[in-house]
Design a protein that fits this description.
mainly alpha, two-stranded antiparallel sheet, 8 helices, 5% strand, globular, disordered N terminus
Length: 227
């Protein structure tokens, strides 16, 4: 679902493909992240035990920060989730900040945020099942069996709230910035700069942190050996 975005049509024989701004921007962000990952992978063999370059210091800092953040919220045993959450964090953050470059933020599209929330939803229940075994399903019958429907609804509400929270904040900022750019040029010279700082930078970073933090909390809550 894409609200208010333009489309580019591609004709291939008798088939017509419509690519939205969201898809194009997402591809650009993905390509940038893949290229960055390949550069890091290439330089990895040259990394030293004692960093001598700013690039190595930067990479080690962000990787260790995410690993420590995950370990602090989910437990040392699940530090490996840092790999996943680093990718999610980087994608959402760059998507949120893409408005500074004139792109439509992919996270202002419910399709993008729903996909991200569904991956969290799958991880929540996957970790609950493999760590809790049959005890995981027993939790749906507590405190009393007739509350099973309500427990199921509460679980379904998790990805819905995650996706709409991120989507709503980013779409709201996109709409407001679109209205601002329609005002007279005299006012438009200075107003957008301040609003970009809030909607793209501050709100974008804040919503990225909230999404990742809540995802960790939801997954950690289902891990049986964290009880």
């Amino acid at each position: 679902m894409d609200f208010g975005s333009n489309y580019i049509e591609l004709q291939l024989g008798s088939f017509t493909f419509r690519l939205s701004e969201t898809i194009i921007t997402t591809w650009i962000i993905m390509a940038g992240l893949i290229i960055f990952a390949l550069i890091v992978r290439h330089k990895l063999n040259k990394f030293e035990d004692v960093p001598k370059t700013g690039f190595q210091n930067f990479i080690e800092m962000i990787v260790e920060s995410m690993d420590n953040f995950v370990a602090g919220n989910m437990g040392e045993k699940y530090r490996y989730f840092g790999n996943w959450f680093f990718g999610v964090f980087a994608f959402i953050l760059i998507s949120n900040l893409s408005g500074l470059l004139g792109f439509r933020a992919p996270t202002a599209d419910l399709g993008t945020t729903a996909a991200l929330a569904l991956t969290t939803f799958v991880l929540i229940h996957f970790m609950g099942i493999i760590t809790g075994k049959l005890g995981y399903f027993k939790g749906y019958f507590e405190p009393v069996p007739f509350l099973v429907p309500l427990n199921i609804i509460s679980e379904i509400a998790t990805p819905v709230s995650l996706s709409f929270r991120l989507f709503g904040n980013l779409l709201g900022g996109t709409i407001i910035m679109g209205l601002v750019y329609s005002i007279p040029m005299v006012i438009r010279v200075w107003v957008p700069a301040f609003l970009h700082i809030y909607f793209d930078v501050f709100s974008g970073c804040l919503q990225t942190f909230i999404f990742v933090m809540l995802s960790m909390a939801f997954i950690g809550d289902k891990i049986a050996d964290n009880d």
